[in-house]
Amino acid sequence: MAKFALVTDFDGTISDDDFFWHVADRYFDAEALKPWSEYLAGRMNHIDALNAIFARIHVPEEELLAFIDTIHLDASFTKLLDICRKKEIPVAVVSAGCDYYIQRLIGKKISEYNIRLITNHGIYNRQDGLKMIPPYDSTYYDKAVGISKAAVVRELQKQGYEVIYAGDGPPDVEPAKIADVVFAKKTLLERCRELGIKTHKFDSFQDIVHYLEDL
Ligand SMILES: [Mg+2]
Question: How confident is the model at residue 2, as a pLDDT?
Fold first, then answer.
């Protein structure tokens, strides 16, 4: 039987929506989101756009952390990790966001389930806001996003894995093009359909749990 690996996005896939949207809803006006429009129009790269938005957060850190704690996660995430462990499927979380909020939200699971987290580093101080620093020395380093999710998929495939990929947004399109099995929602689902990439639509990780149960 083929050996499988699971690679999943974080924002909007494990969490219910992108961190910057959560932050924007809570703290910003429309003006603060201009960098995101610039990114969508192709005039700004992903990490620069997010850094420009995150630099506007100036609340006390305890308040920011308490706010992060209110972000909802997919209720089936632990179930997904359990079945992956049972079936000896390694899990990697790949994110164009950063470890500052990902570790806060799923740090315990990351160590408990031996998950690989491949993302940017994030540091916060009230003066400068949240700053994402890409892993410059990593083999996955990518100038536009910080990390190349596709490079993670490719590496696992080279190691003999069939890669199941789950995601929802623009940075998930490149890895979805090469993954062996794709689960998509929101923007990624639309893009995969436009590009003719064979895709499973999913609403929650429960759908992926069912798929893995039948492997
Ligand atoms: Mg996402």
Answer: 87
**Would the pTM count as exceeding 0.70?**
yes
Domains within the chain, CATH numbers bracketed:
3-18+76-122+139-213 (3.40.50.1000)
- pLDDT for res 44: 97
* CA-CA-CA-CA dihedral for 34, 40, 45, 51, to nearest 10: 40
CA of residue 169 to ligand 1 center, whole Å: 5
What's the gap in Å between 184 CA and the centre of ligand 1?
10
pLDDT band, very low/low/confident/very high, at 56 (cuts 50, 70, 90): very high
What is the C-alpha separation between 58 and 198, in angstroms, rounded? 43
Sign of CA dihedral 89, 200, 165, 75: negative
